[in-house]
Write a structure and sequence with these properties.
There is one protein chain. The chain is an alpha/beta fold. It is built from eight helices and 13 strands. It has a six-stranded mixed sheet, with helices on both faces. It has a five-stranded mixed sheet with strand order 11-10-9-12-13, with helices on both faces. It starts with a strand and ends in a 7-residue tail after the last helix. About 45% of the residues are buried.
Length: about 260
């Protein structure tokens, strides 16, 4: 998990109520939907990822890539601008697709500036899913996240990303493709991961703990046949479509509790 810290605003601190010192936001900005969790309030938004400039509706995130940071900023301001006290600068945790790396994190931080954050932490969505599932992060884990426009297969070890694959297929494509295409794509990604793994981590994860999250995990026609394709037991994460933002919220709580953040 990477972090960016902003200069301390001491003038705001003098007027900030102590009961609000642990203000924080967890964000999961997906191609199709954006989910927002606020400390002390829980999940307060689960809405389409759209911005509304004067020219009409804009989709600022496409296939897991932020193509319009300014549009994302407008969306966040519309969703949260009226919910945040003026003198509060929150800590923000943002989930990120694994393979977009620095480009996504940079764009996400640019968008989140609309919320005047005290600090911004980014976490791979797969790790957030594993945290939400209560998985043992000390063991190898395989996370399959089937979203609306993107599917990721991620191998974690000690909570860190060891390997990752993605395909630009998701549940929103089922109008023009079939569940079999998504299942085959996941199967191919796992097979390549196993073949290219010089260790036994991928094999161990496949046979001990495979987590399935995202909206695709709510579709039994996908999960049933995926079990057969992988020849391995799958564990569907509870409320899989909101797992990433809930995991980010748990990481936000842990960050607040860390002694180095005692000033938040």
């Amino acid at each position: 998990m990477t972090t960016t810290r902003h200069p301390r605003d001491t003038s705001a601190d003098r007027h900030r109520p102590s009961c609000r010192c642990r203000s924080g936001i967890a964000l999961d900005m997906g191609s199709a939907r954006t989910r927002v969790w606020i400390a002390g309030r829980g999940l307060i938004a689960d809405v389409p990822t759209v911005a509304f400039p004067s020219t009409g509706t804009v989709y600022p995130i496409q296939r897991g890539t932020i193509v319009d940071p300014a549009g994302c900023a407008r969306m966040l301001e519309r969703l949260l601008g009226h919910r945040l006290p003026r003198l509060i600068r929150p800590m923000v945790v943002v989930t990120t697709p694994v393979l977009d790396g620095i480009a996504y994190r940079t764009a996400a931080r640019t968008a989140v500036e609309a919320l005047r954050p005290r600090s911004v932490l980014t976490v791979p969505s797969a790790r957030a899913v594993a945290v939400a599932a209560g998985a043992d992060l000390s063991r190898p884990l395989l996370v399959i996240d089937i979203g609306a426009h993107l599917t990721e297969v991620v191998l974690l070890s000690d909570g860190a990303v060891v390997d990752a694959r993605r395909t630009a297929l998701g549940t929103s494509d089922l109008a023009t493709t079939s569940c079999a295409d998504i299942i085959e794509a996941v199967g191919t990604m796992v097979t390549v991961m196993l073949r290219q793994d010089p260790t036994t981590l991928a094999v161990h994860a496949l046979h001990t703990d495979v987590l399935v999250a995202g909206g695709g995990a709510l579709r039994p026609e996908i999960t049933y046949h995926l079990t057969g394709r992988l020849r391995a037991p799958l564990r569907i994460v509870p409320a899989p479509h909101t797992a990433a933002v809930r995991g980010a919220a748990q990481l936000l709580h842990a960050a607040h509790a860390h002694p180095s953040n005692s000033g938040f």
